[in-house]
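Dataset card, provenance and construction

Sequences and ligand SMILES were collected as paired inputs. For each pair, a complete structure of the chain with the small molecule in place was predicted and serialized as structure tokens. The example below shows a pair involving zinc ion. Curators did not alter the output after generation; any descriptive sentences attached to a record were derived from the structure itself.
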Amino acid sequence: MNSEIRIPDGSVHEALNTPQETTAWLISRGLVPEGASLQSYCQNRLVGLRGDLRKAFTALISGIAVDPRVLDGINAALTAAPHTPLLHHVPGEGFFRSLEHPTTQLIEHAMSVIAEDAAALIAGDDAPLLAQCEAEPCSRLLLKTHGRRQWCSTRCGDRVRAARAYARKRTQANLTPR
Ligand SMILES: [Zn+2]
């Protein structure tokens, strides 16, 4: 979900911009093998799953209801990886078994692993630790693993502290009689 984030200057950083970037992102996380080459169809499906996961996690964090279509999308990803070779028949040749087209299988396998991780997290014991970074407009999601962690990074924390210090100084300046 943090592969697309709004960064402090307000712009959006997208790690899954092209099929090539999407492939590199998946390879760097060990979700597809080195040398894999995914199409824009795969990129779109992964971005779609990310959107559904973001909606589900946002619903959890803000305590709002989740659209059933979001759950359908995540459940489709959970069950998308074909683990069993299906039975086929070609007249004159006979029966044979095969898995889905390898490229389709790659993205579906990756999506099922991501959906599995996300579902285990959102329905598990750590779900109450999920939060969005409080350093507006940063949109990173995080786990409040230690104490009252409010920010995704020390950079975001420093930025908020600096803004607060600046605001305090301004308030003091305004209170000083001229
Ligand atoms: Zn942040």
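Derived descriptions for this record:
Residues 82 and 101 are 10 Å apart (CA to CA).
The pocket of zinc ion is lined by residues 133, 135, 138, 140, 151-153, 156 (CB under 6 Å).
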